[in-house]
Design brief:
Blueprint: H1 2-41, H2 45-48, H3 57-71, H4 75-87, H5 92-104, H6 107-117, H7 119-143, H8 147-157, H9 172-188, H10 193-214, H11 217-251, H12 258-261, H13 266-278, H14 286-293, H15 303-312, H16 318-328, H17 330-355
Helix pairs in contact: 1-6, 1-9, 1-11, 3-5, 3-7, 4-5, 4-16, 5-7, 6-7, 6-14, 7-15, 7-17, 9-10, 11-14, 13-15, 13-17, 15-17, 16-17
Length: 356
């Protein structure tokens, strides 16, 4: 018994140590700073106000599908924002697109997926999340078209926020994000540190220059607090979850799941979508779950089921569906869950066919 306990603890520690060594410094730390900057410097109301039923579909669904990256939302914050949108008059289609795409294309999750599970799967996750979010939103809007009449009345009664003018040059914030993304890309690139370090150093000096001469001190402080807030909410869960998954892998090796997820069949993709729909996984934890527990990184889990689980798991879960049902009713929630399962499975099946 003691030997089993020691073995599982060692497995958990080994798994955690590998993830810390390979992904934290070059991947997660820059990504947390980018996510904090998004929360601090991108105005949320400038995006959310375009979600009304009368807004052009290209604008409403386009913004809703990518707002997860812009707002840096995670699964723990998307539901309150969805409730606020829904109750303040957002169209059901854009609101559903928002609640689905938000956690799925979280900037942290996309970067982490690409770094740990591979660039192809990370890119597929981002692209399919956007496409599926729009498709599911449009279908929900078509099925429940009558609900948007009341939302039109609510959106008309909403007070308009006064326009504000930026004192800094318009190019400063885009350049700031370009430099931060440059640090992230350079840090994760497979190049020698003798080349990597000078580039990161130069980019960091450029970021510091912008902060000193084009940003107010309180803005920089807010960036720091937003970064810290995201870090303390997500990083401890990621550490504990990765350690626990390593221990679980000792008792349930990835080979256990090969009969269920080892091939990219339609049945395996449907099962992966269903598991993801009811299983609760905190933000970023879906990556080690798929990579370690289900064995994607060791070749046990096929790419199709991995993508299906990535598309369903972070966006919905049994607890989140219960919350959503209180916001928009049980009937709409059931339809939404079914659409997520079907579309995620089809996306995974298609990805499996393409990748062979």
């Amino acid at each position: 018994m003691i030997e089993i306990l020691i073995g599982s603890l060692m497995m958990g520690w080994t798994t955690l140590a590998v993830y810390l060594a390979e992904h934290v410094v070059t991947c997660l730390i820059p990504a947390f700073f980018i996510a904090g900057a998004i929360s601090a410097f991108i105005r949320k109301d400038a995006i959310l106000k375009y979600f009304s039923p009368d807004a052009p579909k290209t604008i409403a669904y386009g913004l809703a599908s990518v707002s997860g990256t812009v707002l840096a939302v995670c699964s723990c914050t998307i539901l309150p924002m969805f409730a606020g949108l829904f109750k303040r008059g957002s169209g059901i289609g854009p609101a559903i697109t928002f609640v689905y795409a938000g956690p799925a294309i979280n900037i942290l999750a996309i970067v982490y997926t690409a770094k740990v599970l591979g660039f192809d799967l990370g890119l597929a996750r981002a692209a399919f999340a956007i496409l599926l979010a729009i498709a599911i939103g449009l279908i929900m809007a078509a099925l429940f078209r009558s609900d948007d009449d009341e939302r039109r009345r609510k959106i008309a009664a909403m007070p308009q926020a006064p326009a504000t003018e930026e004192e800094r040059p318009q190019w400063s914030i885009p350049l700031f994000f370009i430099l931060l993304i440059g640090i992230l890309i350079t840090g994760t690139a497979q190049i020698d540190w003798m080349i990597k370090f000078p580039v990161i150093y130069a980019l960091t000096l450029s970021v510091a220059y912008l902060l000193i001469y084009f940003f107010q001190r309180d803005e920089v402080t807010e960036w720091g607090w937003e970064t810290w807030d995201l870090t303390k909410k997500i990083f401890p869960i990621l550490l504990i979850g990765t350690f626990a998954l390593g221990m679980l892998a000792y008792f349930l090796p990835p080979e256990t799941f090969a009969p269920f997820f080892g091939a990219s069949t339609l049945q395996s993709n449907l099962l992966a979508s269903f598991v993801g729909t009811i299983l609760y996984m905190p933000t970023l934890l879906e990556v080690p779950v798929i990579g370690t527990t289900f064995g994607y990184t060791s070749g046990v889990m096929a790419g199709g089921p991995a993508l299906a689980l990535l598309l369903s798991g972070p966006t919905v879960s049994l607890p989140s569906l219960l919350v959503i049902s209180r916001i928009m009713g049980m009937k709409k929630t059931i339809v939404y869950a079914i659409l997520v399962i079907i579309f995620s499975a089809l996306a995974g099946f298609g990805y499996g066919l393409i990748m062979g």
